[in-house]
Amino acid sequence: MPQPLDAAAVRRWCRFALDGLGRAREDIDAINVYPVADGDTGTNLYLTVESAAQAVEASAAGDPTLAEAVRSMAHGALIGAHGNSGTILAQLLRGMAGVLAEAGREPDADTLRHALRQAARSAYEAVAHPVEGTMLTVATAAADAAEHAPGRLAEVAGAACTGARTALAETPGQLDVLARAGVVDAGGSGLVTVLDALDAALSGRAPDPTRHHGLERTAGGAAAPQAACAPPATGTDPGSGGGFEVIYLLDSTDDAVRLLRGRLDTLGDSLVVVGGDGLWNVHVHTHEPGAAVEAGIEAGRPHRIRITHLGVPPPSAHATRAVVSLMPGEGLAALCEEAGATALTVRPGEPPGSGELAAALLRTHAREVVLLPNDDQLRHAAAAAAEQARASGVRVAVIPTRSPVQGIAALAVHTPDRRFDEDVVAMTSAAGATRFGEVTVAERQAWTSAGICEAGDVLGLVDGDVAIIGSDPDPVAAEVLARMLSAGGELVTLVLGSPAPTALAARLADRVRQGHLGVDTVVYEGRQSAPLLIGVE
């Protein structure tokens, strides 16, 4: 039975799309030959939709309107976009969301037609050098088919899906690299999956789990999927290999981004810049990753920076063991990198999904990986990511670190030359022997173990529980530290956040020096959102 296009339909759409891409991911990866044959288009699309789905689910708690749901979807896709294909998909969803959010509570078939047209138009505008035979072509075909389809919402969605499938089958005739490989475009294939999910969400039918991207033989004998496509549209030489994929979120103005586009266009290819309203997702393939990041710094504030080598490393280049550490601040992430770990910066309100973490584990190309979540809220995602990586033959151990200071302690005793089990035991013991505290600011009124706090109160936490409520960071921090040292300790670690008073660490270090003989203090600039993190070993 046909369903209205409301917030519930958006939730179904995201859920169906995530399930469909989960089934098709490996097949889409297998046909990924353009713009770079790095075999990750299906994974990138999955991670992008996973981020969108998580944002929509988070908004569902407040009984959202359609406008709120589609904006959450677009924002989630933007901040979680992976790769060329994921970045373009984020812009397609953003284009649709802009139209649907203005449509009121009951958008009609004409609104959906307009949304699909705006999605295709905005995606073309986001790509520096559009190429036909890619997911851009598939998006345009979907909009064309919807425009000429009579009927209600569900019929328009079905027509768009049919038009996209037809265009996908024709992509090898538009792009030589696809024809030579005997495949359809990988990014376009993923887009067909997303549109099929929209069709299912509006038609009321259950998604067909047998409709997947299984490989079959083309007339020419090459292996090709039943409905697949390729990454985004730009002017990359698919046979070049090497180089780096640079992706980052950027806080910047429209004018600065226009200048940035021109700068990045001279540094590389596969350039896609999507977003707006002050937040952008930047993607480029380049042999000068440092210059690409520097250009972002000149344009605004880049964050969640990911740099990936596009060449597939030979087996001899694979590390035996790696450590992946999740950190809430850029300073903490840099500290981990200096210690030899792979650090992922986690921004407030933007927790990584299990798929994103699994991809990070696999990108280390190590046979053994230690994962440090450093946050109680991330333990489930970390465990799920470990299971996904193990399915690919990687040995993974998740150390249940609950705070960044426990992660620092674990990393300090990491010895890659040791047997894996021994290394994990030593790191786990070091983390478990580290008490952790925090000084933060309450965002709203709440009940705590220390009483009722109001928005703006300074909270002192010990081992995850609120122990002190005050108004001044200095006395709260001093009391937290005193309570933590009451059970003894040999080393105090102070991690200063961005809002911390500059002299706070010095005053606390003096207290330790004067009141606790034999206890050393180390201070780090963590640049996390909480004013202060404290560790006592």
Can you walk me through this structure?
The longest helix has 24 residues. The chain has 18 helices and 18 strands. About 7% of the residues have low confidence. It is globular. α5 packs parallel to α7 and α6 runs antiparallel to α7. The strands form 5 sheets. It has a 6-stranded mixed sheet, sandwiched between helices. With 537 residues, the chain is of the alpha+beta class. A hairpin with a 2-residue loop joins β12 and β13. 47% of the residues lie in helices and 19% in strands.
Briefly summarize what is shown.
The chain is 47% helix and 19% strand. By secondary structure, it is of the alpha+beta class. The strands form five sheets. Strands 15-14-11-18-16-17 form a six-stranded mixed beta sheet, with helices on both faces. Strands 4-5-3-6 form a four-stranded antiparallel beta sheet, with helices on both faces. It has a four-stranded parallel beta sheet with strand order 8-7-9-10, with helices on both faces.
SSE blueprint:
Elements: H1 7-30, H2 41-60, H3 66-80, H4 83-101, H5 109-126, H6 135-147, H7 153-169, H8 176-181, H9 186-203, E1 215-217, E2 223-225, E3 244-252, H10 254-267, E4 268-276, E5 279-286, H11 289-299, E6 300-309, E7 321-327, H12 330-338, E8 342-345, H13 354-363, E9 368-372, H14 379-391, E10 395-398, H15 404-412, H16 420-432, E11 435-441, E12 446-448, E13 451-453, E14 458-462, E15 465-470, H17 473-485, E16 491-496, H18 504-515, E17 520-525, E18 532-536
Parallel strand pairs: 7-8, 7-9, 9-10, 16-17
Antiparallel strand pairs: 1-2, 3-5, 3-6, 4-5, 11-14, 11-18, 12-13, 14-15, 16-18
